[in-house]
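Design a sequence for this backbone.
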């Protein structure tokens, strides 16, 4: 498309990827991402095409224009397929970057964003324990202690549920493990109101799932647990 500016091409490519995912056509989605990655690099493909498309799908999942569970599943598998191909190794062959426990905090059921974080963490070599939706604070901390995790990642979509993340901080402090287990918070509300990170007692946040490994690695470096074998 030589007569089109790059912004238009990017928007049209995102739309094509969205259509492939909603059609449950993993092969078409994979080919589109592979072509973009070959032309502009895998990281650029993830930032320019994959992540914004996943955010759009997440908005559909969380909003009035619901998508099916099958379509959400395909979105996750498309991301996983691309990241495995970009890494050139299977999940099991990658060196361990650390251990993380993730989940949606109590009363929160907006799962797609959390699942994307898990995929990007796994692609970066993290061993991820995903506890799912509506997770109580003590379950986060108890699991982190059991598996030797250095970072807990809690997700929330709305302000009301985001404030429940503060209960994880309280549980971490109550058990006196704040030096060994760090707390990351994420979800749409933290992009809109970044000051909530301090309010809920989290150690950090990032604006998208692609940057989650960077945050988790930074937080893990503050923990004496460090990288786990």
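Sequence:
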């Amino acid at each position: 498309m030589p007569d089109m500016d790059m912004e238009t091409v990017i928007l049209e490519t995102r739309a094509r990827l969205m259509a492939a995912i909603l059609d449950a056509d993993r092969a078409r989605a994979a080919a589109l991402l592979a072509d973009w990655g070959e032309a502009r690099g895998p990281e650029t493909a993830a930032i320019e095409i994959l992540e914004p498309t996943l955010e759009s799908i997440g908005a559909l999942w969380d909003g009035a224009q619901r998508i099916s569970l099958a379509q959400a599943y395909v979105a996750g598998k498309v991301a996983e397929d691309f990241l495995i191909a970009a890494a050139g190794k299977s999940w099991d062959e990658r060196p361990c970057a650390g251990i993380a426990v993730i989940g949606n905090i109590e009363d929160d059921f907006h799962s797609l964003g959390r699942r994307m974080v898990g995929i990007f963490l796994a692609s970066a070599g993290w061993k991820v324990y995903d506890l799912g939706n509506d997770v109580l604070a003590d379950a986060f901390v108890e699991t982190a202690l059991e598996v030797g995790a250095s970072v807990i990642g809690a997700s929330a979509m709305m302000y009301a549920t985001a404030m429940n993340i503060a209960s994880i901080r309280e549980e971490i402090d109550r058990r006196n493990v704040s030096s060994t287990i760090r707390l990351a918070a994420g979800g749409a509300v933290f992009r809109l109101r970044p000051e909530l990170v301090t309010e809920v007692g989290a150690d950090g946040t990032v604006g998208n799932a692609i940057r989650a490994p960077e945050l988790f690695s930074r937080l893990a470096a503050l923990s004496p647990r460090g990288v786990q074998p």
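The two ends are 48 Å apart (CA to CA).
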